Amino acid sequence: MKHIAVFASGTGTNAENLIRHFRKHPHCRVNLVLCNKPGAGVLDRAARLGVKSMVFTRQDLYETGRVLNLLKEHRVDFIVLAGFLWLIPQPVLEAFPGRIINIHPALLPAYGGKGMYGRRVHEAVINNRDKKSGVTVHLVNEEYDAGNILFQEECDVLPGDTPDTLAERVHQLEYEYYPRVVEDWISQQEA
Ligand code: GRF
Predict the structure, then answer these.
(1) Which residue of 68, 71, 117, 163 sits 20 to 30 Å from the alpha carbon of 95, by its own alpha carbon?
(2) What is the CATH architecture of 1-97?
(3) Among the CATH numbers 2.60.40.10, 3.40.50.170, 3.20.20.450, 3.20.20.80, which is that of 102-177?
């Protein structure tokens, strides 16, 4: 069995979708949710689904190595970011080479980088009058939203869209594609 850790900072709808997707998978399981925000919705979701979750601090990730130790203790093979907003530090990148993946709610390289997350992404897309937005799944490196792109899917930006309506359309794409893209990516690593 391959183990997946999901890192999330917020509501965790993608985390839940990933947990559900892999629950009956013969070879992979989400066995750990790691979260940097006490009280975040993702923690309730993990609890409801019976997946272990832990909250960590900046020090745990960047200074003491606690996060890396947790990943080792839980025999994590792959890390999936799902609404996680901090950079992954070098020691974690080195321990999981090519094994950390993220989803971004826009068509990278547009609308990526520091500070480009959540509502701000959709506001920027609408303000620029783009006709298309979408999702990008990419490998994680030492910069925000800059690793190799593995998958993209577009959706329309409609006249009258607000950041909320566009976010909802993009979220639907995330739910539809992220688990499948993660699954394919894992099976390619195994091949
Ligand atoms: C998603 O839009 C994802 O693309 C981004 O953060 C958001 C997380 O949403 N990286 P949720 O917490 O999964 O609902």
Answers:
(1) 117
(2) 3-Layer(aba) Sandwich (3.40)
(3) 3.40.50.170
DSSP 152-182: EEEEEPPTT--HHHHHHHHHHHHHHHHHHHH
- Ligand 1 proximal residues by C-beta, below 6 Å: 8, 10-15, 82-83, 103-105, 171, 174
Residue 12 CA to ligand 1 centre (angstroms): 7
Output the pLDDT for position 191. Answer: 63
| pLDDT tens profile 137-190 | 999 999 999 999 999 999 999 999 999 999 999 999 999 999 999 999 999 987
- pLDDT at residue 36 in the model: 98
Catalytic residue among 3, 74, 104, 122: 104
> Residue 174 burial by CB count (10 A; 0-12/13-18/19+): exposed, middle or buried?
buried
Centre of ligand 1 to C-alpha 11, Å, is 8
- Whose Cα sits closest to atom 5 in ligand 1? 83
The full set of domain ranges for the chain reads 1-97, 102-177
β-pairing verdict for 53-55 and 132-139: unpaired
DSSP β-bridge partners for residue 2:
28
